[in-house]
Amino acid sequence: MTKCIVAALQMQSQDNLEDNLRQAAQLMEQAQQAGVQLVVLPENFAMFAAGKQLETAQNLAKIQQWLSQQAQQQQMWIVAGSIPCATRPDGTPVADNKVRASCLIYSPQGQLFGRYDKIHLFDANVADQQASYQESATFEAGSEVVIVETPFAKIGISICYDLRFPLLYQALRDKGAEIIVVPAAFTALTGEAHWQVLLRARAIETQSFVIGAGQSGWHSATRQTWGHSQVIDPWGKVLAEQQQTGSGLIVAVCDLSELHLIRQQMPILRHRRLF
To answer: Is residue 118 annotated as part of the catalytic site, yes or no?
Structure first.
């Protein structure tokens, strides 16, 4: 199989779990009707509300059951954005009443196939209504680079702020990534300035397809996200982009034969010298 149909779900998640899951289910049904094989949900898809990470983590089993059912019903691979998890991958509890921002991957058989915990935490000041972001106050950083092997491609996992750290993406390429996913909730300010250029840069430098699935719109009186979910090819071309604010769906075809040709004609891994 050299081609696969992928989709990025763009959402405007709020502070109601049931409403958010209903919104995601409707979009995944649309994706299934379009023949999608791999769907990527945005960061915080199940709950987007400050101070509710531990509460959401307590609903992890319910969210996992829902994801498993959706994967089976829609017969597609699901990259489940990010969910707060109160335990580490080895089963030990996260210390200090913190959680991890975990991306769970489900197969069409409904099996949990992989997990990635966000490595780079967004501690930054931004000139918007929220002004200060301190993810490390609530989250514990992960440490493992994760690849998931599917029948059509090797999928590299990253989350949002990870996008600014090219060494992670080089590590994903070194592990064989062909499609790299970026569930995100970029702020409106940073997204307008940097989102697409970073997605394109990561695609070009790793010679991989990159799928950016974003939150979009207002989530509270102070929190606004950029959206503009998109799929980029290994040459840096934008294959699909969601221009509208709010929830929506974009679909694109990833042709792995084009990826292999680009890597053959410009073998940058062989030419790398610094490390």
So the answer is: yes
Tell me the C-alpha to C-alpha distance, in Å, between residue 86 and each of 9, 54, 102, 205.
Answer: 25, 7, 10, 34
The architecture that CATH gives domain 3-271 is 4-Layer Sandwich (3.60)
- Give the active site residue among 4, 85, 98, 118: 118
Q: How far apart are the first and last CA of the chain?
A: 33
pTM: 0.98
Unique residue bearing structure tokens 């994760």: 146
pLDDT in tens, 53-100: 999 999 999 999 999 999 999 999 999 999 999 999 999 999 999 999
Percent of the chain with pLDDT over 90: 97
DSSP alpha helix (H) spans, 178-255: 188-190, 196-206
Catalytic member of 43, 135, 140, 178: 43
Whether 135 sits among the annotated catalytic residues: the reply is no
Exactly one of 4, 85, 103, 160 is catalytic; name it: 160
**pLDDT tens by residue, 9-48:** 999 999 999 999 999 999 999 999 999 999 999 999 999 9
Closest alpha carbon to 169 in 190, 142, 147: 147
